[in-house]
Amino acid sequence: MIRITFYYKPGCWLCDTAQEMLNGLIEKYSVEVTKVDITSDDGLYELYRFDIPVFEFADGSSLHGRIKRKDLMQKLEENKDRSN
Questions:
Q1: What pTM was computed for the model?
Q2: What percent of the chain lies above the pLDDT cut of 70?
Q3: Pick the CATH number of 2-80 from 3.10.290.10, 3.40.30.10, 2.40.50.90, 3.40.50.720
Q4: Alpha-carbon distance values, 29 to 3, 10, 24 (Å)
């Protein structure tokens, strides 16, 4: 199981696009997603407001902004071996 934390903001079209892209890969890569609305916490909002959407992976790496499918697939491949 690959665990990803997905930082997003409601109404963000880039976030919606990233979510759709990830949804298409969830079964193939056995992904568990924890969604975090950055508007629910002032600190998270300040940290991520210019970077959303953000996918944070178990290896400490992340993807943000205009995320490309090939980059997401590469990160999923890299994190497959880290899943327990």
A1: 0.91
A2: 96
A3: 3.40.30.10
A4: 10, 25, 10
